[in-house]
Amino acid sequence: HQDSRGFLWFGTQDGLSRFDGLNFVNYGQAQGLTNMAILDLYEDDARDLWIGTNGGGAYRMRDGVLERFQAGADPEGGVVHSFFQAPSGTLMCVTEQGELLRFDGKEFVSVVSVKDVLAGRVYDAVMDAQGLIWMATSEDGLLRVRVHPDDRAEPEVKESGAEVLSADEGVPGT
């Protein structure tokens, strides 16, 4: 990930590294990462770097200092795969357990959970220009969730529950 300052950031199974064009700076347990496996990197409008981890929750890097946030119901912090900003500008993230969370400035708060309609896990998510969140799942193909202007969200539903798109709807490889 290249941030707005031009730094290159690399998230690995062994922590976080920043490259300035000449030197690497590494961030690990000594700098506050309780879980070294990095799954996602995202820079928000305030130029803070958000870091999703494999079981340690979410971290915010601000002015070179890491701050940890619990993401979801998991007391260990949560598995965070994706960050993005809603049309309102609110930072959101998606956990592996299918929970959509919004950051209220102090903590991540649950917006909606789709875990009851999932057979597997969520491994990635993106928000499109219409405010739809597309969640890539391990067992169910793509799951679509609508985010409203007030940051409420709900799965797009059919009679059977959340709309899960698969090869029958033209999604290749599902």
In short:
This protein is mainly β. 0% of the residues lie in helices and 51% in strands. A hairpin with a 3-residue loop joins strand 9 and strand 10.
Describe the structure in your own words.
The structure is a single chain. The chain has 174 residues and is an all-beta fold. Helices cover 0% and strands 51% of the residues. The protein has strands spanning 8-12, 15-19, 24-27, 38-43, 49-55, 58-62, 65-69, 78-85, 91-95, 99-103, 108-113, 122-127, 132-137, 142-147, 153-155, 157-158, 161-162, 164-165. Strand 16 and strand 17 (161-162) form a beta hairpin.
Give the low-confidence spans.
157-162, 170-174
Strand content bin: over 45%
Q: What would you call the shape?
A: globular
Q: What is the makeup of the main sheet?
A: 8 strands, antiparallel
Order of helices and strands: EEEEEEEEEEEEEEEEEE
Strand-pairing-aware structural class: mainly beta
